[in-house]
Amino acid sequence: MSIAQTFLGLLEAGPRHGYDLKRAYDERFSHARPLHYGQVYATLSRLLKNGLVEIDAVEPGEGPERKRYAITKAGVTDVRRWLTQPERPDLYLQNTLYTKVVLALLTGRSAADVLDIQQAEHLRAMRELTRRKADGDLADQLICDHALFHLEADLRWLELTAARLDDLAAKMRAAGTHRATDGERGEVIR
Protein backbone atom coordinates (compact mmCIF):
# COMPACT_ATOMS: atom_id res chain seq x y z
CA MET A 1 0.00 0.00 0.00
CA SER A 2 1.24 3.48 -0.77
CA ILE A 3 1.26 5.52 2.43
CA ALA A 4 1.90 8.74 0.49
CA GLN A 5 -1.11 8.36 -1.81
CA THR A 6 -3.26 7.26 1.11
CA PHE A 7 -2.30 10.43 2.98
CA LEU A 8 -3.14 12.50 -0.09
CA GLY A 9 -6.54 10.83 -0.30
CA LEU A 10 -7.18 11.51 3.38
CA LEU A 11 -6.11 15.14 2.96
CA GLU A 12 -8.64 15.68 0.17
CA ALA A 13 -11.33 15.81 2.86
CA GLY A 14 -9.54 18.76 4.44
CA PRO A 15 -6.29 19.87 6.10
CA ARG A 16 -4.98 17.74 8.97
CA HIS A 17 -2.13 17.52 11.42
CA GLY A 18 0.31 14.63 11.15
CA TYR A 19 -1.08 12.87 14.20
CA ASP A 20 -4.62 13.13 12.73
CA LEU A 21 -3.39 11.49 9.52
CA LYS A 22 -1.73 8.72 11.54
CA ARG A 23 -4.90 8.09 13.54
CA ALA A 24 -7.11 8.02 10.42
CA TYR A 25 -4.65 5.74 8.60
CA ASP A 26 -4.34 3.36 11.54
CA GLU A 27 -8.13 3.19 12.04
CA ARG A 28 -8.91 2.47 8.41
CA PHE A 29 -5.92 0.70 6.91
CA SER A 30 -3.46 -0.79 9.37
CA HIS A 31 -5.11 -2.53 12.30
CA ALA A 32 -2.31 -5.08 12.54
CA ARG A 33 0.65 -2.73 12.04
CA PRO A 34 0.08 0.90 13.02
CA LEU A 35 2.34 3.48 11.43
CA HIS A 36 5.25 4.83 13.39
CA TYR A 37 5.29 8.59 13.82
CA GLY A 38 8.64 8.64 12.02
CA GLN A 39 6.96 7.16 8.92
CA VAL A 40 4.20 9.76 9.09
CA TYR A 41 6.50 12.75 9.23
CA ALA A 42 9.02 11.35 6.74
CA THR A 43 6.16 10.79 4.28
CA LEU A 44 4.75 14.27 4.87
CA SER A 45 8.21 15.76 4.40
CA ARG A 46 8.58 13.96 1.06
CA LEU A 47 5.09 15.06 -0.06
CA LEU A 48 5.93 18.64 0.93
CA LYS A 49 9.25 18.51 -0.95
CA ASN A 50 7.48 17.15 -4.06
CA GLY A 51 4.83 19.88 -3.96
CA LEU A 52 1.95 17.48 -3.31
CA VAL A 53 1.07 19.01 0.08
CA GLU A 54 1.64 22.39 1.65
CA ILE A 55 1.65 23.68 5.19
CA ASP A 56 -1.80 25.16 5.76
CA ALA A 57 -1.13 26.51 9.26
CA VAL A 58 1.42 26.43 12.04
CA GLU A 59 -0.01 26.42 15.55
CA PRO A 60 1.91 26.80 18.79
CA GLY A 61 1.81 23.83 21.11
CA GLU A 62 3.32 22.74 24.41
CA GLY A 63 6.13 21.08 22.46
CA PRO A 64 7.18 21.82 18.93
CA GLU A 65 4.90 23.88 16.70
CA ARG A 66 2.09 21.86 15.16
CA LYS A 67 1.86 21.96 11.38
CA ARG A 68 -1.37 21.37 9.58
CA TYR A 69 -1.01 19.99 6.05
CA ALA A 70 -3.25 20.52 3.04
CA ILE A 71 -3.23 18.82 -0.34
CA THR A 72 -2.19 20.88 -3.39
CA LYS A 73 -3.67 20.72 -6.89
CA ALA A 74 -0.67 18.60 -7.89
CA GLY A 75 -1.47 16.28 -4.97
CA VAL A 76 -5.09 15.93 -6.10
CA THR A 77 -3.85 15.07 -9.60
CA ASP A 78 -1.40 12.55 -8.17
CA VAL A 79 -3.96 10.72 -6.03
CA ARG A 80 -6.51 10.77 -8.89
CA ARG A 81 -3.94 9.16 -11.20
CA TRP A 82 -3.04 6.57 -8.54
CA LEU A 83 -6.68 5.65 -7.95
CA THR A 84 -7.33 5.10 -11.66
CA GLN A 85 -4.26 2.90 -12.25
CA PRO A 86 -4.93 -0.81 -11.83
CA GLU A 87 -2.73 -2.69 -9.40
CA ARG A 88 -0.57 -5.39 -10.92
CA PRO A 89 -1.87 -8.76 -9.74
CA ASP A 90 0.64 -10.56 -7.54
CA LEU A 91 1.08 -13.91 -9.21
CA TYR A 92 3.01 -15.60 -6.39
CA LEU A 93 5.02 -17.59 -8.91
CA GLN A 94 7.99 -18.03 -6.60
CA ASN A 95 6.90 -17.68 -3.03
CA THR A 96 8.52 -18.85 0.18
CA LEU A 97 6.10 -21.71 0.75
CA TYR A 98 6.82 -23.24 -2.66
CA THR A 99 10.55 -22.91 -1.93
CA LYS A 100 10.13 -24.68 1.43
CA VAL A 101 8.27 -27.59 -0.21
CA VAL A 102 10.97 -28.05 -2.86
CA LEU A 103 13.81 -27.74 -0.36
CA ALA A 104 12.16 -30.24 1.98
CA LEU A 105 12.02 -32.72 -0.90
CA LEU A 106 15.60 -31.98 -1.98
CA THR A 107 16.95 -32.44 1.54
CA GLY A 108 15.00 -35.59 2.34
CA ARG A 109 12.73 -33.92 4.86
CA SER A 110 8.98 -34.28 4.96
CA ALA A 111 7.33 -31.84 2.55
CA ALA A 112 3.99 -33.14 3.85
CA ASP A 113 4.93 -31.84 7.32
CA VAL A 114 5.75 -28.43 5.81
CA LEU A 115 2.33 -28.37 4.15
CA ASP A 116 0.52 -29.57 7.31
CA ILE A 117 2.17 -26.93 9.48
CA GLN A 118 1.29 -24.24 6.97
CA GLN A 119 -2.29 -25.46 6.66
CA ALA A 120 -2.69 -25.23 10.44
CA GLU A 121 -1.33 -21.66 10.40
CA HIS A 122 -3.67 -20.68 7.57
CA LEU A 123 -6.66 -22.10 9.44
CA ARG A 124 -5.62 -20.23 12.62
CA ALA A 125 -5.40 -16.98 10.64
CA MET A 126 -8.79 -17.65 9.05
CA ARG A 127 -10.41 -18.16 12.46
CA GLU A 128 -8.91 -14.89 13.70
CA LEU A 129 -10.10 -13.00 10.61
CA THR A 130 -13.57 -14.52 10.90
CA ARG A 131 -13.81 -13.28 14.52
CA ARG A 132 -12.59 -9.82 13.49
CA LYS A 133 -15.08 -9.76 10.62
CA ALA A 134 -17.98 -10.66 12.93
CA ASP A 135 -17.07 -7.88 15.36
CA GLY A 136 -16.15 -5.29 12.74
CA ASP A 137 -17.83 -2.62 10.74
CA LEU A 138 -18.32 -2.81 6.98
CA ALA A 139 -14.74 -1.68 6.27
CA ASP A 140 -13.40 -4.46 8.53
CA GLN A 141 -15.69 -6.97 6.87
CA LEU A 142 -14.45 -6.04 3.40
CA ILE A 143 -10.74 -6.22 4.27
CA CYS A 144 -11.26 -9.48 6.16
CA ASP A 145 -13.12 -10.95 3.17
CA HIS A 146 -10.20 -9.99 0.92
CA ALA A 147 -7.72 -11.72 3.20
CA LEU A 148 -9.98 -14.76 3.70
CA PHE A 149 -10.37 -15.30 -0.05
CA HIS A 150 -6.58 -15.25 -0.44
CA LEU A 151 -6.16 -17.72 2.40
CA GLU A 152 -8.78 -20.00 0.86
CA ALA A 153 -6.87 -19.98 -2.42
CA ASP A 154 -3.68 -20.82 -0.52
CA LEU A 155 -5.45 -23.72 1.20
CA ARG A 156 -6.55 -25.10 -2.17
CA TRP A 157 -2.92 -24.91 -3.32
CA LEU A 158 -1.74 -26.66 -0.15
CA GLU A 159 -4.22 -29.52 -0.72
CA LEU A 160 -3.35 -29.84 -4.41
CA THR A 161 0.37 -29.84 -3.65
CA ALA A 162 -0.06 -32.45 -0.92
CA ALA A 163 -1.86 -34.69 -3.43
CA ARG A 164 1.01 -34.26 -5.92
CA LEU A 165 3.99 -34.62 -3.56
CA ASP A 166 4.90 -38.13 -4.69
CA ASP A 167 4.91 -37.08 -8.36
CA LEU A 168 6.93 -33.95 -7.60
CA ALA A 169 9.49 -35.92 -5.58
CA ALA A 170 9.84 -38.50 -8.37
CA LYS A 171 10.36 -35.78 -11.00
CA MET A 172 12.94 -34.04 -8.82
CA ARG A 173 14.82 -37.31 -8.26
CA ALA A 174 14.79 -38.03 -11.99
CA ALA A 175 15.97 -34.50 -12.81
CA GLY A 176 18.75 -34.74 -10.21
CA THR A 177 19.94 -38.13 -11.53
CA HIS A 178 19.77 -36.95 -15.14
CA ARG A 179 21.79 -33.81 -14.42
CA ALA A 180 24.43 -35.75 -12.52
CA THR A 181 24.86 -38.19 -15.41
CA ASP A 182 25.08 -35.38 -17.93
CA GLY A 183 27.39 -33.45 -15.64
CA GLU A 184 29.90 -36.31 -15.79
CA ARG A 185 30.21 -35.65 -19.53
CA GLY A 186 30.44 -31.91 -18.89
CA GLU A 187 27.02 -31.17 -20.38
CA VAL A 188 24.03 -29.65 -18.67
CA ILE A 189 20.61 -30.46 -20.06
CA ARG A 190 17.76 -28.19 -19.04
From TrEMBL:
Highest taxon in the source lineage: Bacteria
InterPro entries: Tscrpt_reg_PadR_N, WH-like_DNA-bd_sf, WH_DNA-bd_sf
Domain Transcription regulator PadR N-terminal: 8-77
Pfam families for the chain: PadR
Protein name (record): PadR family transcriptional regulator
Lineage: Bacteria, Bacillati, Actinomycetota, Actinomycetes, Micromonosporales
